[in-house]
Amino acid sequence: MPANNLLLSSSPNAFTGVDSRKIMLAVIIALLPTTVYGVVLYGVPALLVILTSVAAAVLAEAAFRALIKQDVRVGDLSAVVTGLLVALISPPSLPLWMAALGSIAAVIFAKEFFGGLGANPFNPALIGRAVLLMSFPAAMTTWHAPFGALTDATTAATPLNVVKLGGSVADVGMQIAGSNDYGTLLWTLFVGNRAGCIGESSILLILVGFAFLLALRVVNWVTPLAMVGTTFVLSWILGMDPVFGVLSGGVVFGAVFMATDYASSPITPLGKLIFGAGAGAITAVIRRFGGFPEGVTYGILLMNAVAPFLDKLRVKKYGYVPAPKPAKPAKEAGK
Amino acid sequence: MSTKTFRGGAHPPERKHRTEELPIEYLTQVKEVVIPVNQHFGAPIQPLVKVGDQVKRGQKIADAEGRMTVPVHASIAGVVKKIEPRLQSNNLEGLAVVIEADGSGAEDFMPPLDGFSCGKDDALARIREAGIIGMGGAGFPAHVKLAPPPNKPIDLVIANAAECEPYLTIDERMMAEKPADLVEGMAIVMRVLGVAKGVIGLEDNKAHHLDALEAAIKAAGRGADITVQLLKTKYPQGGEKMLITALTGKEVPSGGLPMDVGCVVQNVGTFCAIAEAFRLGKPLIDRGFTVSGGACKTPKNLVVPVGTVVASLVPEHIQLDEEAVRRVIYGGPMMGPSLPSWAVPVQKNTSGVLFLDASEAKVYAEGPCLRCGRCMKACSCRLSPALLNVAIKAGDLSEAEEIGLLDCIECGTCSFVCPSHIQLVQRFRVGKQLLRAKKQKEAQRAGK
Hints:
Shape of chain A: globular
Mean pLDDT of chain A: 89
Strand order of the largest sheet of chain B: 1-14-13-17-15-16
Shape of chain B: globular
CATH topology of the largest domain in chain B: Rossmann fold
Largest sheet of chain B: 6 strands, mixed
Largest interface: A-B, 52 and 75 residues
Largest sheet of chain A: 2 strands, antiparallel
Order of helices and strands of chain B: EEEEEEEEHHEHHEHEHEHEEEEEHHHHH
Radius of gyration of chain A: 22 Å
Helix content of chain A: 55-70%
Low-confidence stretches of chain B: none
Number of strands of chain B: 17
Mean pLDDT of chain B: 93
Order of helices and strands of chain A: HHHHHHEEHHHHHHHHHH
Strand order of the largest sheet of chain A: 1-2
Number of domains of chain B: 2
Oligomer: heterodimer
Low-confidence stretches of chain A: 324-335
Structural class of chain A: mainly alpha
C-alpha cells in the first residue's frame, strides 16, 4: 500500500473553488463596462491613464514584495484592481506620471506597508486619489467634456463643480444636456455623458457592474444602499437636490466599488450598515459645507478608520437568542 | 410538502451518484477483526477477554461501570489473538481486541425483547447492553440520550436522515431497504421517552424515498405520530443543532444539549440498530458504510462486522487504483479524519471510507484573509470565523471565547468557503484545546 503518497490534514477535505483570484477577476469584470465607456467618452488619453495606472500598481506591488522578500502575489490580481480603481477615479487628462504615482502610493503606502492584501486599514485607491488631490490639485480638478480632444480649450466643469460655484441645477442642464428640461438632465447624468472622472460618470453601467457582483455574491447590497440612501436623504435635508446629488458625482461609484472593499470596511452586517450610512452622511456634509465639490473620497476614508470598531457589532450567536448566558464571570477571573 | 432548513451553511458537491442507487452488500465472512475497545464518546471501558479466549459473535468483550459507558461485542466467532494498541479511525492508537475467525459462526445474542411491552428500564438496559452509540459519527451513547433528567421534558424524537456529507449514501440505502426498521426503532424510542411525536428529517435530494418511508410508517400502524419532513439540501444539516433548528425553529442553548429544547436526535442507522437489538437481540456488531472516492473502482454500500480492517477487503471486495489514492478518509470529507493508511478497522461510528484521488484531495497554501465575509455568512452558528481566526492567531483566547470559540461545532463550512484556503476550523480545534487548557490552569490556581 503506497502509504507515503497519502495526504494527511485536518478536515474539511473539500473546497468551493472560488478563490481570491476569482473574486478579484469578478471585480475587474464588473468594472469593465464603465471602464470601456470611460475610454469611449474621453478617448486615448483615458486609455493611457488606465494602462499606466494598472501597470504601475502591478509593478510596484511586485517590486516591493520582492524587496521585502515576500511572495510576489501578482497572480491574485488585487494590484490590477487597485490600479484600475485609481485610474477610474482620476480625470482623463491626468499626466501619466501622476497616474503612476497615484497607483504606487495606493499599493505601497496604503496596502503593502500594512501587510498587503487584506490588511490595509484604508481603501488603497482612495488613498492614491487623496495623495494626488493634495499634491496636484490643479491636475486633479481639470475636467473635460466628453467626445472632444483633451486640450486646454475644451476644459469643462463637472456638474457638482457648477453647483459648488453657485450655479443651479438648470445651469448644469444647459451645459451638459443642452436643455433645461430636468428629466433630460437626469437621464443624461444617469447614462453618464458628462465631464468627470474616467469611470464614475455612467450610473447605468456602474449598476450593471453592481448587479454582476451581487449575482456572484462578491459584494453585499447593504453598504452601497446605505451609503447612497444616506447621501440622498441628507442632501435633501440640507437643501440640495437629492436626485441630482446621487446621479452627478462619484457617490454611486464609491458606494459600489470603494465602500465595499473587503479589507477596509467592516465585516459584520450591522457594521456594514453603519459604515455605509456614515460614508454617505460625510459625503453630503462635505458637498454642502466643505471646500470641495465632492466628498466621497473623504467620506469613505474617514469611515475606514472606524471600521475596526464597527467589527465589534457582531450578530447574535446561535444558541444565545432566548436567554444569553452570563459568560462574563469566568472571563474576569482569567484576567 | 414545503421544505425547511436552517440559516447559513453551504452546498458542497454531493458526489453521491455513484452509490446512491446501489443496494447494500452484506459481508459476514471475514478472517480477522480488530475491535477498538473504546469507540464511544464517554468514559473508557476495559476488555473482558484474554488472549486465547474463544468468543462467539455477539459476545460482550469489553465493558465498564458508569453512565457514559457502552459495551463492545465480538463481531465474529473466533479466538482472541491479541489485545494491543492499534490505529483507530480517529487517527489515535487505542486498545483493540484482535479476533481471528474460526469459521464456526457461533452466535451469542441476547433474547429478543418486545420494545412495546417491556418496562422502560429494561428497554434502556437493552439499548446499553447492545452497545449502541450514535452512528452518525460522534458516537454518543444512545441510552444516555434516552434517559434525560426529569427536569428536561422531551416532546420530539428526530430521526436524522439528512446525510449532508458528500459521498455518503449508507443512511439513504438503509431508509430505502429497511424503512420498517427505522420506524420500529423510532417507535421504541418514542415509547421509552413517553413522547407522542417523531419526525424524520430528510434532505430533499433524497425526496424520492418519501413514499417508501410514508408507506412504512403506515404499515407499522403509525401515521399521525411519525411524520417525514423534507429539508432543503444543505451542509451541515445533519449536525444535531442545525437539524433541530431546521425542523422546529428552536435553537439549542449555548453549551446545552438537544434535550434542553425537548428534542432527542438519533441517526437513521442508530434507530435501525435499536430495532434489531429488540427484535433479534442483536448487539451493534455490524456496520454499514459507503465506500467511494475517485480512486475507488468499486464504489458500494457495504455492511461488515465491526472491526473489519478495510485493507483486508482489498482487492476481493474493494478494488482500488492504489497509485491514485491521495487521501483516505473515514467518514465524510467535511468532518472525517484523513488517515495514514487503510489498514484501519471499521468502527461503530464509521459511515464511510473514501479513497480520494488527486483531483479530489487538493492541498492549498494558506493565503491572507481578504475579509470577504464568506465564512461569516456560511457559519450556521453565526460565529465570526474571520475574527475568531485573528483572535486565535494573536493569542487572545479571551477574545476568541467572547466571539464564540466554544460554540463552534467544527463542521468546517468556513474552511470550505474560504477563498484564501485559510485553515479556519483547523485553527479553532487547536484554539479550543488551548482555551480548555487555560481554563483548567485557572481553575487549579483558583483552587489553591
